[in-house]
Amino acid sequence: MRFVLRGLPGLLLDVCIYGYLAGLLFARLARGFWGDQFWWLILANCFAPWMFLVAPIGALGAIAARRGQWVVTAAWLPVLMFGVLYGPRLLPPPGTNPAEAATLRLLTYNVLGTSDESARIVHTVIASDADVVAIQELNPVVASDLQAALRDAYPFQALHPRNGVSGLGVFSKLPMQDRGERRLRTWENWAQEVVIEWDGRPLTLFNLHGEPVARTAPTLRRSLAAFEQSFRAQEAQTRELLMHAEALDGPIVFAGDFNRGDENVTHGWITAQYRDAFSETGQGFGHTFPSPSGRAAIGRLGSFPFSVRIDYVYYSPELESIDSRVADWDGVSDHYAVSATLVWNE
User: Fold this and answer.
1) Burial letters for 282-303: b for 16+ Cβ neighbours within 10 Å, e otherwise?
2) Stronger pLDDT, 294 or 288, i.e. the higher one
3) Is pLDDT at 107 greater than 70 in this prediction?
4) Edge-to-edge strands, sheet with 156-160
5) What is the mean pLDDT of residues 46-56?
6) Which CATH number covers residue 333?
7) 79 within a domain of the structure (yes/no)
8) Which end of the chain is more exposed for a tag (fewer CB within 10 A), N or C?
9) How far apart are CA 317 and CA 270, in angstroms?
């Protein structure tokens, strides 16, 4: 169906199309210049793909309304931008499964610290067939249940449960040395370090839970300030983690809930030295938060159909990912678990 839109309605459509394109270009340029320096840029970077949600509507609307050539071009540029920026994510990952290579399947899983649905967690862990499971928000009740239920399948366990959301734990089928919770200044007790013996070689795994994002405060101004401060704390955590890891020998894996998107600046700091398993061998956007229960927990904000990838497996260049995927929702947690299958990069 085509129609000619004249007068003020046509002018308003043109303004919307040009303004939308200008906004997208400004957001990309601002990210390059300022990173996550301001709260509005943090949000724009975190939810960047969603900014293209209305691009097809504008593109088809410009054609249907028989707007001029320049308007139609401006309307289709956001569609082209989305294809260039995010199109590769939608393609099947390259096949990189070396024959007879020793593999390590790792699962990172935020189980929701206020939940005691241990049976669902056990089901998710067993279904993943992971060799190593890094759990965040491990509370004492769940830790006790998992310790018993997974004793045969995962004989090596390093558990540091706490009430609330700061508990951590690693379950492993492979021999493992627990170095405990690393008392990094900016992480406090939110970082756990273990050494896993895999294929005759040691591998250092960090089980991490990044600074939670502050969501509420008495006023909007204070809420935005607290939100921005959360990301400043995450930046400090990332700097300290990378400095600590530089002093270690051998391959390293960071796994956990980092509480920020893959277009926020700290992701770039990590991927300058490490690889992101899902970016390398996953398909799609890999969004892990919020799950349906997460949407309910965050109240009115949960009514917006936006999600983001905040759970990651990063690995050092000695390793290579051959598969990474988001697990099915366990029916309870506000996160989706993420798995990555690693091999030696030889």
Assistant:
1) beebbbbbbbebbbeeeeeebe
2) 288
3) yes
4) 156-160, 168-172, 132-136, 104-110, 338-344, 319-326
5) 94
6) 3.60.10.10
7) yes
8) N
9) 12
Spatial distance between the Cα atoms of 287 and 270, rounded to a whole number of angstroms: 19
Question: Tokens 């020998």 sit at which residue?
Answer: 249
Q: Is residue 308 part of a domain?
A: yes
Element (H, E) at 253: strand 252-257
Whole-model pTM: value is 0.92
User: How many domains, the chain?
Assistant: 2
Write 221-230 long-range contacts (CB < 8 A, 24+): 224/39, 225/39, 227/39, 227/42, 228/38, 228/39, 228/42, 230/259
Confidence at residue 303, expressed as pLDDT on a 0 to 100 scale: 47
Describe the chain by its helix, strand, coil percentages, rounded to 5. Answer: 40, 20, 35
Cis peptide before 155 (omega within 30 of 0): no
Q: Per-residue confidence at 221, pLDDT binned at 50, 70, 90? A: confident
Q: Is residue 128 located within the same domain as residue 83? A: no
Q: With 70 as the cut, is the pLDDT of residue 116 above it?
A: yes
- Answer whether 139's CB lies under 8 Å from 113's CB: yes
Which residue range(s) make up the domain with 30? 7-90
